[in-house]
Amino acid sequence: MKHRLAIEKDIDFVYDLYMDEVSNPYLTYDPMSKKEFENIYYELLPENTLYIVEIDDRVIASYRLIPKKDRQAHIFYIGGFVVNHAMKGKGFGSKILSHIKDFATKHGKKRIELTVDIENEPAIKLYSKIGFMIEGRIRNSYKRSTTNKYYDEYFMGLTL
Asked: From the first residue on, what is the mean pLDDT of each consecutive set of 10 residues in the chain (160 residues)?
């Protein structure tokens, strides 16, 4: 399994991942056209926080790994973690998170954080299995345009 920074040619895969009807409700961006997504994608690339996961040159997942700064420089934040729908349930999520844990440790990080929709039970189960703990609930954390409702998220953390 290879983890690498996203490049321009990955846009089709990342767009399809983010707009997947099963995954999209739990990700950062509401459904949108590819043209609208291009603007977001090309803003993310220079930040060097968007990663692609490949197996045998086949892209299977994406995530953002954002280093915090200043007094929180010992922390990575995981965002937008999504595995291709066809690859779910095969252990890839666990392997990817284990890699992130190892990567964080090698880079001197002491903690990893993330947020997850309280209704996203498969993700909560996965994160818990890896060692993340629910540390709080963020009420009305975000609003989906598809439902015009606000949703809560759990704040989860893992001490390395």
From this structure: 97 96 94 97 97 95 98 98 93 98 98 98 97 99 96 98
d(CA 123, CA 157): 14
* CATH assignment of the domain containing 112: 3.40.630.30
CB neighbour list of residue 45: distance below 8 Å, 6 or more residues apart: 6, 7, 8
> What count of other Cβ atoms lies within 10 Å of the Cβ of residue 82?
20
Within 13 Å of residue 68, how many CA atoms lie on the same side as its CB? 16
The Cα–Cα gap between 101 and 17 comes to: 23
Distance CA 43, CA 39 (A): 6
Q: Tokens for 79?
A: 């965002």
Residues 114 and 79: beta-carbon distance below 8 Å: yes
Q: pTM for this one?
A: 0.94
Give the residue numbers spanning the domain of 131. 2-159
Task: Name the phi and psi angles at 150, rounded to 5.
Answer: -95, 150
Displacement of CA 113 from its chain's centroid (Å)? 11
The type of residue at 26 is: Y
Structural domain count of the chain = 1
Bridge-based pairing of strands 58-67 and 75-83 is antiparallel
